[in-house]
Amino acid sequence: MTVLPDDGLELAGEFPDVPHEQWQRLVAGVLRRSGKDVEGAAAEEALSTALEGGLRTRPLYTAHDSAPEPGLPGFAPFVRGARAEGNTVGGWDVRQRHTVADRDAVLGDLENGVTSLWLTVGEGGIAVPDLGRVLDGVYLDLAPVVLDAGRDAEPAARELLRVYEERGVARDAARGNLGADPLGHEARTGQRCDTAPAAELARLCAGEYPGLRALTVDALPYHEAGGSAAQELGCSLATGVAYLRELAGAGLDVEQACGQLEFRYAATADQFLTIAKLRAARRLWARVAEVCGAPRAGAQLQHVVTSPVMMTRRDPWVNMLRSTIATLAAGAGGADAVTVLPFDHALGLPDAFARRIARNTSTILIEESHLARVIDPAGGSWYVERLTDELAHAGWEFFQRIERLGGMPAALRSGDLERDLAETWQARAGLLAKRREPITGVSEFPFLAEKPVVRASAPEPRSGGLPRVRRDEAYEALRARSDAHLAATGSRPRVFLAALGPAAAHTARLTFASNLFQAGGIEPVMDGTFEESGATEAVLCSSDALYAEQAEAAVRDLKAAGARHVFLAGRPGEYPGVDAYVFAGCDAVAVLSATLDRMGVVS
Fold first, then answer.
1. Which of 67, 237, 428, 477 lies at a C-alpha separation of 20 to 30 Å from 181?
2. Across residues 565-576, what is the average pLDDT?
3. Are residues 139 and 170 in contact, defined by beta-carbon separation less than 8 angstroms?
4. Is residue 1 over pLDDT 50?
5. Which residues have a Cβ under 8 Å from the Cβ of 132 and sit 6 or more positions away?
6. CA 117 to chain CA centroid, nearest Å
7. HEC string of 366-429?
8. What per-residue confidence (pLDDT) applies to 603?
9. Full-prediction pTM beyond 0.85?
10. Which long-range contacts (CB under 8 A, 24 or more apart) does 39-42 make?
11. Is 163 helix (H, G, I), strand (E, B) or coil?
């Protein structure tokens, strides 16, 4: 936390203390000029930002915003990092994901900055017998290997161990994770897996392979099903506790069992929420270990993956920016290993350029930005410490809910967990539909003339359990309708933007309407007359003052020219002849879907 210098110099010492109430009065004055008449705490609340899961970010944090002492790096409760040295020695582990048996791609990654491999094996990935061929030429005593094999976890693990033996890798030199995750597989596919093989692998690793872990606690299925950060934390805790119970039943003590788990979380472009989530995850797991009687075993090993949910298929180049912010947040949050999904991940099999950009994202942040040289750089921030505390409480509350349902297996099989996640996603989908949560290149500033990025098909991911959602899915469906119409007719559906008055009066709403309709694949036409546009619908764009004078006549003229439906860009009012209004905060998805329906653009 913030500490005064030893020499007693207080930079703010000559300035009088300002009461919080005085700041609130100033805020109220500013809001009053914008039409909001609120006072005191209500004024501050008006500037607060709602986060997922009921959390809120306030506009001002001070030393009075208390949070528990985060401790020191490498010491319980491990908020500031699981290791005393953090990632300062060489940065975080740069872990690249591979889903196909491409040995050249694997070696290319390792020769250019990647430090460990994450291999999808079995269903939806590399065939188990091909594992040795894919790893041919890999220095297995230097590059850790992490498996993700679903129901094939045991044969894949045995094959990897066989490869280690065949290549002469000493058992104490093997590094990585065998990746058994029975509950994660059930969440992905709906298929129950026997936990006994995972427990046996854990016993083997604990006894003979000190550098290998046997199980992964993967929270990505819950993130990808639309869960909030708090729900992701709660699910990971419940899964981890379920595995501790299984391993204890197999004869491992708590310290050994904790040492067999690696936790996997998502990093999003909301950098502060991601930082707080990773810090809260370590605190919560430390608490679990403490309650189980092994406080020194509570240092959580974290593998963080840039969020698949945030990746877009349209204008995929923007994904590079999203991933950079997410990677920064993962590093600043203290992740031990980071996987940057290539920007074309949502389009199919990533190409060599996309993989290069992905691995270089971490390299630049580590080697050029020196992000790893400071342990827990966000620590001490009143905002981050408070957000970490609030998120930890919310995650613990959701964990307790799962335990009350009978634990993670029962919560998955009863459908209660799926309903909770669906409810969270439904609320978020509403924000996306209203563009309260904007998606650059999709719901905001779309580019209809962009050249599609085409990739080879990737292996079909495991499915059948929890759904996989994407932020762009509603808009993607609209754009797909427009693309089909373009292929069938040679042109996109069009809307005519009718500007009233000078540029100063209409530019803002003209730009707004253009962006809105392009988000649904509808081409805006601004030149010429309505008859020349080829459109069947129109949008009036101007100022409120000009609407009062000219809107009625303009609507009458447009309908006389053949417009079947006339929108007005602005808040709903009483303008004769106007059929609908488009404005900031309207349900863009509903408006665009209905517009395409009227235009005869089939679903």
1. 428
2. 96
3. no
4. no
5. 159, 162, 163, 166
6. 22
7. HHHCCHHHCCCCCCCCHHHHHHHHHHHHHHHHHHHHHHHCCCHHHHHHHCHHHHHHHHHHHHHH
8. 80
9. yes
10. none
11. helix
